[in-house]
Amino acid sequence: MAAETVSGTQQQSSDVTSFVLDNGLQVVVIPDRRAPVVTHMLWYKVGSADEDPGKSGIAHFFEHLMFKGTESHPAGEFSRRIAEIGGQENAFTSYDYTAYFQQVAPDALPVMMAFEADRMTNLILTDEVIGPERDVILEERNSRVESEPRSLLGEELDATLYQNHPYRIPVIGWMHEIEKLNRTDAIDFYRRYYAPNNAVLIVAGDVEAGEVRRLAQETYGKVPRGPDLPPRVRPSEPEQNTARTVTLSDPRVATPSFRKAWVVPSYTTAEDGEAEALDLLSEILGGGVRSRAYEALVVEQGIASSAGAWYQSDALDETSFQIYASPRGEATLQDVEKAMDAEIARIADEGVTEAELAAAKKRYVRSLIFARDSQSGMARIYGSTLTTGGTIEDIEKWPDRIEAVTAEQVRDAARRHLDQSRSVTGYLLPAGGDRS
Amino acid sequence: MAAETVSGTQQQSSDVTSFVLDNGLQVVVIPDRRAPVVTHMLWYKVGSADEDPGKSGIAHFFEHLMFKGTESHPAGEFSRRIAEIGGQENAFTSYDYTAYFQQVAPDALPVMMAFEADRMTNLILTDEVIGPERDVILEERNSRVESEPRSLLGEELDATLYQNHPYRIPVIGWMHEIEKLNRTDAIDFYRRYYAPNNAVLIVAGDVEAGEVRRLAQETYGKVPRGPDLPPRVRPSEPEQNTARTVTLSDPRVATPSFRKAWVVPSYTTAEDGEAEALDLLSEILGGGVRSRAYEALVVEQGIASSAGAWYQSDALDETSFQIYASPRGEATLQDVEKAMDAEIARIADEGVTEAELAAAKKRYVRSLIFARDSQSGMARIYGSTLTTGGTIEDIEKWPDRIEAVTAEQVRDAARRHLDQSRSVTGYLLPAGGDRS
């Protein structure tokens, strides 16, 4: 059943090489010879938004289970080996993908690939493995969410922002559903989604593409293709007609804050140039200390301790654009919310200047360059793009597409998408607090 | 394949008879000899909350398709026959059930049963049938929801109240999902849910149980059993930690109003006596012109044109308790909301008096008697109870269980369930309006 030959389309643009094994595994090789180190990342095209209703948390739960043992490698052996050779490892689960990551010396790449290919298919999933790990995850949820008012509010804000799409459900899963996840759920999930034809391998570092190809063939190439999966079509949002608020008052909150969110296109769903304009809008409005929000609320008016904006650009489906601020001194939450809203209105009404657009592009592209300057940052950009519907070409033309955005497009993005009557605002308040 | 014999448990309490055909159809006969009329209702244990994600509206769409033709009876023939004999018919879809209803002279019962049994299995579902009916439903949605700000707000309020359970999705379906419903969806739905073992037949009127049994056997008894369906377990709500609001400002709104909702137990999910206490709480707080809310806001303070409460008691899963009011004269929406909240707080703090509890029980039981006094009202009570997890015994003991509720239970229901910090409030405002 193992595919022994390498086939598929071959892409060669800049120095990045991509090919597909017979069993469907896409491999991307990113040369980076600055240091004797290699980043090996395996990305699965499955995340929490692919979970069945009522099974929230299984994608993240499964990420944990991947660190348990296989028939040939007992639990802990893979991690111990990485530690012994001074390497690093990690894993993360998001709405649209799950990724496993090791950073090691180049001569350890073959063994990383062997281990990673092994756990793609040979994991031992017994109740003895699953029960204790579920307890670990429940404890993780307790400490990260249940004891953090900000996280609790964030979860309910997301579930109020999205009313149909599974992005409304927290990646970690809801407590009452995690509690019920069992061996059958884990095995079904593993058999369905963990397969070479549902994965992308990114290898960045001091490696030769030809060598990576040979190694991939010897390791991952032996894993049989999994079931053909249907297109990743999730229920989409109905038209939004209302403004919504979500308020949490909690004695553990010392400083009030607010977040306001809108559902907007992602790079995958946007029309040409729209996601790029949203990226620059978030940069101009609230990307750091040179942004309009920070300068106005924190520096000039002195009413806020923080103020910013954030656009979750890489997502398979419609995503969110958010603003946030926290009052300082005598100012109330209502004061800072009004001031933020005024900054949005100013962009929607008057647009942005050519000078600030140019500066934002420069900062934005520079931050991309910084990300690329890190080997693992680079691997993450490729992995997240390729598992959310993008291509290698998309990544390579990204800076040019950012450069092409006009001031009108930025203004129009604010006008079209940041409508107050269709916003969803979360308020985090001290016990008994109010906004005014 | 047709089951020709009658079997199953037999229940005989009061005058109501119940039996189950070999193919799984439950039949309930309710004698009512006051007039020469019979109510024939077929209830399917499927509603919008059973729909697959992304397929909202298919349950209601299917209700429409049931009025199209079968191989032996072309479209319109059934309805024409009912009209010719001076009968009435109707159908309705809810979250948990779909029902078809005819009211005719007793001698027409056999032909009603034959028609209804025929369309349980022989419906012709071609694109020629489905396409035009989808247009009818889109138009229905346009006129009932899209052009009604109150309905638009109601939909988004429900989707904000329920964040995981399918009660968040409108029964009629979301526009963008109805648009995509097709023949495959309809056929899948029909084959899965329209079968004798997923239905309850209610026959009320001037009929003999033995005769109904013989007729049911001859008609429905010939329909083969459908697939065994899994238990109706839907995703349930996570713990709610926030207060939420949903606001719609619309030029079509003349008078502002608000609705506040909580997720509460239904008769099916409640512990002993809790649903009965919620029923009486809704009666005392806001059930008509003798209720506390009406007397306080409308009569005494004169600040509201309407004020009331409403408990959706019959539901398979956790359901909602709602209050509502609309300001009058100089009063603002905020004024009436505060006044309503004060009435709730008064019950939670001080409880209700024995006198008003006794009066509420009397009004409540009387309204049940009125409902039972109508033949179709009676049939509806049996149908909705039996398709949402209740039994005939539950219906018969209902008045006794209401009588047993104590003032403390009513107070505790308000304390436990009507918590302002976990409420979801909808505001309907004129264009540019606010709450103060």
Describe, in short, the structure shown:
Chain A has 436 residues and is of the alpha+beta class. Chain A has helices at 58-65, 77-84, 109-121, 127-146, 149-161, 175-178, 183-193, 209-218, 274-286, 292-300, 333-350, 354-373, 375-386, 392-403, 407-417, and strands at 6-13, 16-21, 26-31, 38-44, 88-93, 98-104, 199-205, 243-250, 257-264, 304-311, 319-327, 424-430. Chain A has a seven-stranded mixed β-sheet with strand order 1-2-3-7-4-6-5, with helices on both faces. In chain A, strands 8-12-9-11-10 form a five-stranded mixed β-sheet.
Main sheet of chain A, how many strands, which sense, barrel? Answer: 7 strands, mixed
Strand content of chain A: 15-25%
Radius of gyration of chain A, rounded? 23 Å
| Largest interface by Cβ-Cβ < 8 Å | A-B, 34 and 34 residues
Helical content of chain A (DSSP H or I, runs of 4+):
40-55%
Low-confidence stretches of chain A are 1-13
Oligomer: homodimer
Strand count of chain A: 12
SSE string of chain A: EEEEHHEEHHHHHEHEEHHEEHHHHHE
**SS class of chain A:** alpha+beta
State the separation between the terminal residues of chain A, measured CA to CA: 67 Å
How large is the count of helical segments of chain A? 15
**Strand line-up across the major sheet of chain A:** 1-2-3-7-4-6-5
Average pLDDT of chain A works out at 94
